[in-house]
UniProtKB/TrEMBL annotation:
This is Bifunctional protein FolD. Homodimer. Catalyzes the oxidation of 5,10-methylenetetrahydrofolate to 5,10-methenyltetrahydrofolate and then the hydrolysis of 5,10-methenyltetrahydrofolate to 10-formyltetrahydrofolate. It catalyses: (6R)-5,10-methenyltetrahydrofolate + H2O = (6R)-10-formyltetrahydrofolate + H(+); (6R)-5,10-methylene-5,6,7,8-tetrahydrofolate + NADP(+) = (6R)-5,10-methenyltetrahydrofolate + NADPH.
Length: 291
């Protein structure tokens, strides 16, 4: 039996339509479009591609896009000065500083400098704290997109066994927090986990976010489990996930492809966070059930 393929691209397109409705409602009430500023330091080609598709999606959703491209040798003070300017700019509701930054820059200091109410990545310590406490805030885009896909496939997640493979600040840790808040039973596994195969095998939900090409084979997957593959690995064979799709699709109940799974949801959730941030800043009510 072959798994249902979770169409992240189609799901993201529907979400972007609903966001566009809310973005128009915001613009009508506030007298201006919601604005997203993206900062790219250096010219990593993959980052440039992502920034471009994000800019297009922002405009298509009826929001304003501000792009700031800085040379690779930009120093900390100059980047801090730009963040301060964007923090103070009333037309900017969301700020995203593309990661990874060149090694000579202190990424933590930059992310902490962003106004937490404009932190559409949800990486600021204040938003991380809000997520852990269950307070309203801005939630990291990739894990939020994964949660939406899981709820679409499974409905209520209460009591389900979820294993998150990977403990990064941008995916693994916030993913575990969201699944916990959704009343799943959550295990965070990582490179030091003993008998990872056995840990993954007991999961109803597997979220793979380790960044190692095809490291989770189908025979680790419990029959019928839902598999969310966050990995985007460029190999000679093209773009592949952290899950070995060919073998996993034969065992899973549902699985995201790479590309066309989680990636498009990340961008849609960035737009979602931008309109949510804009509405909170201006005190405009939104239909959050649409988002
Ligand atoms: N501050 C920050 N926030 C981010 O959210 C962030 C970041 N930095 N740095 C880079 C990563 C990567 N990322 C992706 C988003 C969408 C796709 C995406 O839409 N991928 C498509 C196409 C992939 C392709 O063809 O290259 C897919 O999976 O179907 C990929 C990658 C966001 N990131």
């Amino acid at each position: 039996m072959s798994a249902t393929i979770i169409d992240g691209k189609a799901h993201a397109a529907r979400l972007r339509e609903r966001i566009a409705v809310q973005a128009a409602a915001f613009a009508g009430a506030a007298g201006r479009a919601a604005g997203l500023a993206v900062v790219l330091v250096g010219e990593d080609p993959a980052s440039a591609v992502y920034v471009r598709s994000k800019g297009k999606a922002t405009i298509a959703a009826g929001m304003e896009s501000f792009e700031h491209r800085l040379p690779a040798d930009t120093d900390q003070a100059a980047l801090i000065a730009l963040v301060d300017r964007l923090n103070a700019d009333p037309a900017v509701d969301g700020i995203l500083v593309q990661l990874p930054l060149p090694a000579h820059l202190d990424a933590d200091a930059i992310l902490t400098r962003i106004d937490s109410d404009k932190d559409v990545d949800g990486f600021h310590p204040v938003n991380v704290g809000r997520l852990m406490l269950g307070l309203p805030g801005l939630v990291p885009c990739t894990p939020y997109g994964c949660l939406l896909l899981l709820q679409d496939v499974l409905g209520d997640l209460t009591g389900l066994d979820a294993v998150v493979v990977g403990r990064s600040n941008i995916v693994g840790k916030p993913m575990a927090a969201l699944l916990t808040a959704a009343s799943a039973t959550v295990t965070i596994a990582h490179s030091r986990t003993r008998d990872l195969a056995a840990v993954v095998r007991r999961a109803d939900i597997v979220v793979a976010a380790v960044g190692r090409a095809q490291m989770i084979p189908g025979d680790w997957i419990k029959p019928g489990a839902t598999v969310i593959d966050v990995g985007i690995n460029r190999t000679d064979a093209g773009l592949v996930g952290d899950v070995d799709f060919a073998s996993a699709v034969e065992v899973a109940g549902a699985i995201t492809p790479v590309p066309g799974g989680v990636g498009p949801m990340t961008i849609a959730c960035l737009l979602r966070n931008t309109v949510v941030a804009a509405a909170r800043r201006e005190g405009v009510p939104l239909d959050m059930s649409a988002l």
